[in-house]
Design a protein that fits this description.
Number of helices: 7
CATH superfamily: NAD(P)-binding Rossmann-like Domain
Shape: globular
Largest sheet: 7 strands, parallel
Order of helices and strands: EHEHEHEHEHEHHE
Mean pLDDT: 97
Bound molecules: NADP nicotinamide-adenine-dinucleotide phosphate
Structural class: alpha/beta
CATH class: Alpha Beta
Strand order of the largest sheet: 3-2-1-4-5-6-7
Distance between the termini: 37 Å
Radius of gyration: 17 Å
């Protein structure tokens, strides 16, 4: 089945990488369910893509019943789920000595348990179909650690481990797994940094001369997601690390 007829559920579709992926897949004729907490942003995407099949559903990935509802409504509308893109995430930055417990809890709930909630909801239908594809956004920080990013890195290492376990458990059911691991991408992610100094520093670095080689655009990651979805049934791209050319780490 080509990309055109695939049913794709995107969690974290209201901005950045998820929104860009929704727009690209819609333009290629995929049938989409797009989900996030900001319903108005999802509806804007729907309205901007006239003629595309897009179902916007509000959901918080930390709430298992809301994630289940996204999958149930998708099956109700399209009859199947070919791809689940677990893309919702936040990236607060603080050194561990700041003991930012709320940030740790939110990151674990969204970046890790949110992915598990997605897998838990989509797996039964994919197993029944004897086919499916789960894609999860990790990060270069799922391979490397930087000061200030220890907890975030921990969540992104964790999802790589979860996705490798999923691959081993479900390959015999023709379920593909892909970890997308971007370096710096120009999105709204910095808004989830509570530490003002770090947030402003990163935002102003994005405006310095040469910054275009230090960050990618969400549309560029979207094209990688479209590529991994549009592979033949016998081929699974399990991991894809995508750095801006000028990024050192
Ligand atoms: N930007 C980068 O440099 C970069 C690099 C590597 C990896 N990543 C990863 O890429 C993914 C997408 O981030 P982005 O860069 O595109 O940033 P973004 O523009 O801030 O997008 C984050 C998305 O996650 C959603 N989200 C956050 N918390 C959620 C929750 N509790 N329930 C449901 N949805 C939630 C947001 O929607 P709502 O707020 O509307 O719920 C939004 O759609 C994240 O997993 C991030 O860790 C980003």
């Amino acid at each position: 089945m080509s990309l055109k007829d695939k049913v794709v559920v995107i969690m974290g579709a209201s901005s950045g990488i998820g929104a860009a992926t929704a727009k690209l897949l819609a333009s290629k004729g995929a049938k989409l369910t797009i989900s996030a907490r900001r319903l108005s942003r999802l509806e804007e995407i729907q309205q901007a893509n006239v003629g595309a099949e897009i179902l916007p559903i509000e959901a918080d990935v930390t709430k298992a019943d809301e994630v289940q509802n996204v999958i149930d409504k998708t099956v109700e509308k399209y009859g199947r789920v070919d791809v689940l893109f677990n893309n919702a995430g936040i990236m607060p930055v603080n050194n561990l000595d700041q003991v930012a417990r709320d940030e740790w809890n939110n990151m674990l709930d969204i970046n890790v348990k949110g992915v598990l909630n997605g897998i838990a909801s989509a797996l039964p239908i994919m197993k029944k179909q004897k086919s499916g594809h789960v894609i999860t956004t990790s990060s270069v920080l799922g391979y490397e650690v930087l000061p200030g990013y220890a907890a975030y890195s921990g969540t992104k290492y964790a999802v790589r481990a979860i996705m490798e376990g999923l691959r081993q458990e479900e390959h015999a059911n023709n379920i593909k797994t892909t970890v997308i691991a971007p370096g710096s991408v120009n999105t709204e992610l910095f808004n989830s940094i509570n530490n003002e100094e770090v947030r402003d520093g990163l935002k102003s670095a994005m405006k310095q001369p040469g910054a275009e080689m230090m960050a990618m655009q969400p549309e560029e990651i979207a094209s990688a997601v479209a590529f991994v979805i549009d592979t033949p049934a016998n081929m699974a791209v399990n991991e894809m690390v995508i750095r801006p050319t000028g990024q050192e780490v």
